[in-house]
């Protein structure tokens, strides 16, 4: 035997909203209690999973005319990504790095061929999390010859 209930659209919206808010509250509480163990770098897609105490490392090769945006996030033992509170970078080599916001930075190639080591430090709730990014710089490809004529002069 079925019992019929009449439910208004307002009631349905209220149930959906209550379910969403409780799920969001659960996720916020869960982030506060998860242990962040390493940094995850993403040049195109995040793919790193870390182990406790392991410093994450990523690398990319650019020509001496390029730069690349690198995204950084905290990574829990289970591989879940947690946003950073702050991000700091320092570098050794001809290349450089420029912090954009707490989640990303530009790795900028130098003029000379060689490697640049970028030390990345993120913080989550006051805990420092280190990582290393290696930037390999290669010479740009020569694709043509530029010829310019000067101003005509008398002989």
Explain what this protein looks like in three dimensions.
The protein has 155 residues and is an alpha+beta fold. It has a domain at 36-138: Immunoglobulin-like, CATH 2.60.40. 16% of the residues lie in helices and 44% in strands. It contains 1 helix and 9 strands, in the order H-E-E-E-E-E-E-E-E-E. The chain has one helix at residues 9-33; strands at residues 36-42, 56-63, 67-76, 81-82, 86-92, 96-101, 104-108, 114-124, 127-138. The strands form 2 sheets. Strands 1, 3, 4, 6 and 7 form a 5-stranded antiparallel β-sheet that branches. A 4-stranded mixed β-sheet has the order 2-9-8-5, with no helix packed on it. The longest helix is centred in the N-terminal third of the chain and has 25 residues, at 9-33.
Provide a quick synopsis of the model.
With 155 residues, the protein is of the alpha+beta class. Helices cover 16% and strands 44% of the residues.
Tally the helices: what do you get? 1
The helix/strand order is HEEEEEEEEE
* Major sheet attributes: 5 strands, antiparallel
Number of strands: 9
pLDDT average, as an integer?
75
Key structural traits:
155 residues; alpha+beta; Immunoglobulin-like; 5-stranded antiparallel β-sheet; 4-stranded mixed β-sheet; 9 strands
List the helices and strands and how they pair.
Blueprint: H1 9-33, E1 36-42, E2 56-63, E3 67-76, E4 81-82, E5 86-92, E6 96-101, E7 104-108, E8 114-124, E9 127-138
Parallel strand pairs: 2-9
Antiparallel strand pairs: 1-3, 3-4, 3-7, 5-8, 6-7, 8-9
